[in-house]
Amino acid sequence: MRIIAKSIVVGILLSGCNSTLENAKTLEFKVWGNCGMCKKTIEGSLKDKPGLYSADWNVKSKQMKVVVDSTKIKSEDVHEYIATSGYDTDLIKGNDQAYSNLHKCCKYDRKP
Q1: What is the pLDDT of residues 34-77, one digit of tens each?
Q2: DSSP collapsed to 3 states, 9-51
C-alpha cells in the first residue's frame, strides 16, 4: 500500500513538471556590461522571478540566454527586470540612477 501511494505522488509530481516544461521558451538577446560583477548583477536581477527557469549572461559575447515559462512571464518583463538593475538590453535602456550606482568597472559605453 505504501509503495502504491508513493508511486501515485511521484506520478502527480511528474505530470505537473511535464506541463510546465511544455511552456518553456528560450529567449536570447544582448545585454551590455563588462565583467564578472556585471554578470552577477544581471543574472541576479532575474533571481526568484516567477516563471523563470534559468538565466545566463556571457561576458564576452554580451548575449543573455533565459529560459522562462511563457505562461507566467513575458519577454518584455525580463528586459525590464534587467534594465531596473542599470543594464541596457537591446529593447530597453537601463535605469539611469541604477547605472550611476554601478561599480566603476561595470560602467560600459551606453547606447544613445
Answers
A1: 999 999 999 999 999 999 999 999 999 999 999 999 999 999 99
A2: HHHHHHHHHHHHHHCEEEEEEEECCCCHHHHHHHHHCCCCCCC
Ramachandran region of residue 27, left (φ > 0), alpha (ψ -120 to 50) or beta?
beta
Instruction: Report the DSSP pairing between strands 63-69 and 52-57.
Output: antiparallel
Sign of CA dihedral 79, 86, 60, 35: negative
- Say what the pTM is: 0.80
Counting every residue written for the chain, the total comes to 112
Q: Please give the CATH architecture assigned to the domain spanning 24-106.
A: 2-Layer Sandwich (3.30)
In one-letter notation, the amino acid at residue 111 is: K
Contact 93, 83 (CB under 8 A): yes
